[in-house]
Write the structure tokens for this entry.
Amino acid sequence: MGRVADKIALITGGASGIGRATAELMAQEGATVVLSDLQDAAGDEAVAAITAAGGQAQYHHHDVTDEADWKKILATVLGDHGRLDILVNNAGVGGGGVPVEEIPLELWRDTMAVNLDGVFLGVKHGVAAMKELGGVIINTSSILGVVGLPLTAAYTASKGGVRLLTKAVAIECAARGLNIRVNSVHPGFIDTPMVGGAIQRGGPARREAILRSQPTGEMGQPSDIAEGILYLASDAAKFVTGSELVIDGGYLAR
Ligand SMILES: NC(=O)c1ccc[n+]([C@@H]2O[C@H](COP(=O)([O-])OP(=O)(O)OC[C@H]3O[C@@H](n4cnc5c(N)ncnc54)[C@H](O)[C@@H]3O)[C@@H](O)[C@H]2O)c1
């Protein structure tokens, strides 16, 4: 208990899946969690569940692709709590199943806007908010930020960008003497609404293919990733920066 006691944490995409599990775990471990998302009803429900379990949580509507929204939410967090200790850039959109020569430029740009621009804006404004007191930033990449997969060009490119953006900013913060650690987390296939959507689009064959691709034959749970993010956010990881934490049931080990 108390691995992030009294810390102020902002978790984007906090209304669902991995973001919600991370918010619940960090609240259990003593943090005040600020969840942000586009899904307001689900965000309010997550806050109600965390509060009912004795945690401290708030929800704010926040589009990670919108720089003005970033300024607004960070002003709110700093106004309410005086500091930001932990930022989890978790919001993301899936996609895939489209041959590269058929990907509309619009779909490519929409994917980049959330998965890469959104993380860049979080890092940009997060570093500014943490400069004085220090902090930790965790960016959610993917196994598909490390290796490719057929029919996922836009998603894979966006997550590869997150992986190296993380390293560039981590060493920049270190070189500038800022007490800010920056790491990426790389989930394998995790049972969340995002993967549920892909399975719905692809049918039972898609589900079978995902399970076959897993060395363990199973998908992970959102809590498996939340545990890794909690570790990176905690002082137990005080010497960890610019690093990539893979949590994938062995997917990348082959
Ligand atoms: N589930 C997996 O197998 C898996 C694997 C690797 C990486 N990831 C990554 O983990 C992260 C979380 O995904 P998840 O599986 O929990 O999916 P999810 O769909 O359950 O959650 C993603 C959340 O992000 C929010 N979001 C989307 N666009 C947004 C925007 N513009 N502004 C603010 N919020 C926005 C959604 O509303 C949703 O609540 C994503 O970055 C995803 O790419 C997931």
Residues 8-253 form a domain with the Rossmann fold fold (CATH 3.40.50.720).
